[in-house]
Structures are given as C-alpha cells and as structure tokens.
Amino acid sequence: MALSTDIKDELGLVQVYTGKGKGKTTAALGLAFRAAGRGLNVLMIQFLKPAENYGEHVSAEHFDNFTIMPMGLDHMVHKIPKEEDIQIAKDTLAKAKEEIYSNKYDLVILDEINVAMSWGLLDPTNVIEMLKGRPKNIEIVLTGRGAPEKIIDYADLVTEMNMLKHPFDAGIHARKGIEY
Asked: How far, in Å, CA of 109 to CA of 70, rounded?
C-alpha cells in the first residue's frame, strides 16, 4: 500500500504513556495496530521484555509492516542494577537509535524505556539527545512507569494511566491474551 504524503507529513511527535495503572503498552499497541492498518511501518522495541511468546508478538506476525524486537533479559532488575542490566539497556538504546535513524519506520514504540530510565539503566538526557537528532516525520512513543520529568517536559503528548483497582490485588495473576 502506497503511503500518502499527507499522512507522513503529520507525523513527528513524541508521546509518553506512563503512570501506575495498567494499559501503557496496550495503548501503544492500539496505536501500532491503527498505524499499521493505515500503511505506516511500525517498530516496537521492548526494553525489558525477553523474546517470549507474548500475545503482541503473535499478533505482529500477521502484519508485514509491524515488527517487534524484544531485547530484555529474562529477569527483573532489582533495586541495584547489575552491570549486565545497564549494558543491555544501553545496547537496546543504541539499536533503537540505529533503527529510528534508518528512516525505515514511521512509528517507533520504545516499550518500557521509562522504567529503564527510572531504574537508572539509561540517562534521560541521552534519550532526549537521540530523539532530537532523529529524522523528521517519525512518531515516537515511550511507555512505562516512572517517566522522568525531563522526558515529560520534552514530549508533545503525555498520558498518565491511573490505577483505581486491579485484579492482581485480589490474587488474580496475569492472564494470557489479556495482560500478555
């Protein structure tokens, strides 16, 4: 499908989905689904998720123009990150920059990058510098809890998900097809 110039000309904003509520990645995936349906090339780079069989990976396989790159480790980062955790986050940011600057994508989602910054794995200043130098007309979405103030100030759109109630509090764990 040939992409009309008017669609591409309207791209180029930075969006942030943050907060303690559920739905940040889900909202980004909804945007990805919409964009892919309009013929935009979409990339989601997952900072803290390993290459497992998440529902979004299965769905993305049905689109020629939607790619997901899980680049996280198979463990959660604890209060004091290991050097390995920091290096993986830096490598993932370098890969994100390479892909964004390739100009192959119209929408790039940096999933859980806010968490990586809030845990001290990445410096928000470095992320902003990477975003400032990107090619024109590439929409960027940053997801995850704890978006740093510098990122919130830099972004064009910021949505904070607020949790009022969650089934996890009642002992209901993550469900396949709903949470992953």
From this structure: 12
Checking DSSP bridges between strand 107-111 and strand 157-160, what pairing results, if any?
Answer: unpaired
Q: Measured between alpha carbons, how far is 77 from 137 in angstroms, rounded to an integer?
A: 34
Q: Which domains can be identified in the chain, with CATH numbers?
A: 15-163 (3.40.50.300)
Can you tell me which residue has the tokens 């200043």?
Answer: 125
CA 2, distance to chain mean position in Å, is: 26
Amino acid at 93: L
Q: DSSP characters for the chain? A: -PPPHHHHHT---EEEEESSSS-HHHHHHHHHHHHHHTT--EEEEESS--S---HHHHHHTT-TTEEEEE---SS---SS--HHHHHHHHHHHHHHHHHHHTT--SEEEEETHHHHHHTTSS-HHHHHHHHHTSPTT-EEEEESS---HHHHHH-SEEEE---S--GGGGTPPP-TTTT-
Smallest Cα–Cα separation from 106: which of 172, 27, 41, 18? Answer: 41
The predicted-structure confidence for 54-109, as pLDDT tens digits, reads as follows 768 777 777 899 999 999 876 666 667 888 889 999 999 999 999 999 999 999 99
Do β-strands 139-143 and 66-70 pair in parallel, antiparallel, or remain unpaired?
Answer: unpaired
